[in-house]
Amino acid sequence: MKEIFHKVSSLSEALSILKRLVEELGFLPLGQETIKTVDSIGRITTRPVFARYSSPFFHSSAMDGYAVRFKDTLSASEGNPLLLKINSDALYVDTGDPLPIGFDAVVMVEDVNIEGEYIEIYSPVKPYQNVRTVGEDIVATELIIPERHIIRGIDASAMVASGVLDVDVRKQPICTIIPTGTEIVEPETVRHKPPTPPQIIEYNSIFISSMIEDTGGITQRGEIIKDDKDLLASAILDATLDSHVVIVIAGSGKGSEDFTADVIRQNGRLMIHGVSIKPGKPFISGIINNKLVIGIPGYPVSAFVCMRYLVLPVLRWMLGIDSLDKKVVRANISRQLSSKLGVDEFVRVKIGAVGEKTIASPVGRGAGLMMSVVRADGILTIPQDSEGLWAGSEVDIELIRDIDDIKNTIVCIGSHDNALDLLANHIKSRFPKYSLSSSHVGSMGGIMAIKRGEAHIAGCHLLDETTGVYNIPYLKKYLNDKKVIHINFLKRTQGLIVQKGNPKDIKGFQDLLREDVTFINRQSGSGTRLLLDKHLKDLGIEASKIKGYDKEEFTHMAVASAVLTGIADTGLAVLSSARALGLDFIPVAQEDYDLIIDMQYIDTEPLKILMSIISEDIEFRKQVEMLGGYDTKDMGRVVYKTD
């Protein structure tokens, strides 16, 4: 194969190239080896396994009792008990004992009455009653497991039981992982103190190793390599000596410190230099010393996607396994998603069953958002020929969690609050069978999700400018044809978050007009956005004159993080988010943050559990109040019901 230069491949093209490389290297599949059966769990057979011996390989008693000759018992009955002489016509046997020669049945000890040297029985027995006959479980020469079978514990036991003590299995692909980056540090270095900029803890190799080993490979992790081309080349060349695959973490892009592509090109052949997937575009691959060398991005979600959709298929080919049997469910998307043409995008989603519908809610799309994978139940693929999906679109979701977990999920769509995370943890802690999935699309988005039957509950804090009443006017306007119950969850303090010490001396909304102040906003349709716009209107401030008004985030914590990191000087959010990140806070208003519940689910077990926690659990209320800025005295109170 000729070297391919700077052509970004489609996902299908990249997989095709990788498969040809694996075949060229003679790894399609790898060879076989013989190992002890007791050590074979998780390995893949290279040929069918047949029983050497029968199991059991002698007639044995299945019960504690007396071995007898069935013909001797034919006359026994309740009215005419039969006496059989012990050690002559009846021999005592324990469970598992060989059946004595000449005997062909066992009477359970519970069914006999001992009379001196005799046993008394009250019914005849059938031939081989209570006897495990030769080959009852396994017959010699019987197929135990087929070729290309992943050996389970029970399979290994069956093989050993039938005398198969060694088994031929596929060799495991050995993968060396090389983390790179001058800023990357070993986890142990931060045990007693936090990392200091620009240090980043090396964590990608943990989940990458797990993915490889779950597939059937072997991992070995090299030392962290600083951003030095010669050091990287030396590490890769050394790794090719005892590995089938070398995986370099980070350094796969085209930046000034991204050397992996050059190292492959100068020491072998570079065959893939970018794949049109999102996240994960900076994927590269080639051959050095007749070994496959792969470069994956350093962003964790990009690395996860590259591993799942490009690297794991390579390992399965080496192991002779067919493509992954993906578990897929049909679901409706909770909010609109736009996507770039020409790119396969992999969106992480939370999933829950709402009535007859399965709802998928995106949990974050950034390549660095590792928690979007931690929280995800599945992955939605937006194909390269699509510009996105409308809210409510029916799509296929590839599951990465068990379907039973999804069926027992309470779907909450709407406004974000940190107390929802506490509620989710409290539910899982006390009732492990159930979970709460929260998708943050704003209060109005939550109300519309309830209207469309796509959520069990919605977090809501919409202030009506005319009446000064929270939520109820919006329920009357948008949910007048829907039976819902409006529950007070908590009262919370909203305000302007500023950096510690308030270095720009921000005092209120008027300061948002200053040239040196950058604002971070919440998304349109959120209660916080409506609260902001009301204050701006009351003060006669034009939104267009606020620098950063059009820059939006979907959660209070995202706003707080933007202020902490200097992206913005201030933003409107709840007090708890400021306290969580050690920021200062300028109170603006106390508001009602409530839960809107679809009445058709109020009597279901998950919703009963949720209601019991918010209505009766004192410990939960204490945890919420400790976040700061919350009043829980009315938590659980019914505020309003639609007719």
In short:
This protein is an alpha+beta fold and 643 residues long.
Offer a few descriptive terms.
Molybdenum Cofactor Biosythetic Enzyme, Chain A, Molybdopterin biosynthesis moea protein, domain 2, alpha+beta, Molybdopterin biosynthesis moeA protein, domain 3, 16 helices, single chain, six-stranded mixed beta sheet, 25% helix, 643 residues, eight-stranded mixed beta sheet
| Alpha plus pi helix count | 16
Tell me what portion of residues adopts beta-strand conformation: 25-35%
Would you state the CATH class of the largest domain?
Alpha Beta
| CATH topology call of the largest domain | D-Maltodextrin-Binding Protein, domain 2
Work out the number of β strands: 38
Alpha-beta classification? alpha+beta
Q: Number of domains in the coordinates?
A: 5
Shape category: flat
Describe the structure.
There is one protein chain. The longest helix is centred in the middle third of the chain and has 20 residues. This protein starts with 10 loop residues before the first helix and ends with a strand. The strands form eleven sheets. Strands 31, 32, 33, 34, 35, 36, 37 and 38 form an eight-stranded mixed sheet that branches. It has a six-stranded mixed sheet with strand order 16-13-17-21-20-18, sandwiched between helices. A five-stranded mixed barrel has the order 22-25-24-26-28. α1 packs across α6, α3 runs parallel beside α6 and α9 packs antiparallel against α16. The protein has five domains: 166 residues, MoaB/Mog-like domain (Molybdenum Cofactor Biosythetic Enzyme, Chain A, 3-Layer(aba) Sandwich); 48 residues, Molybdopterin biosynthesis moea protein, domain 2 (Alpha-Beta Complex); 73 residues, Molybdopterin biosynthesis moea protein, domain 3 (Molybdopterin biosynthesis moeA protein, domain 3, Beta Complex), CATH 2.170.190.11; 70 residues, Beta-clip (Beta Barrel); 185 residues, Periplasmic binding protein-like II (D-Maltodextrin-Binding Protein, domain 2, 3-Layer(aba) Sandwich), CATH 3.40.190.10. It is flat. The protein is an alpha+beta fold. The chain contains 16 helices and 38 strands.
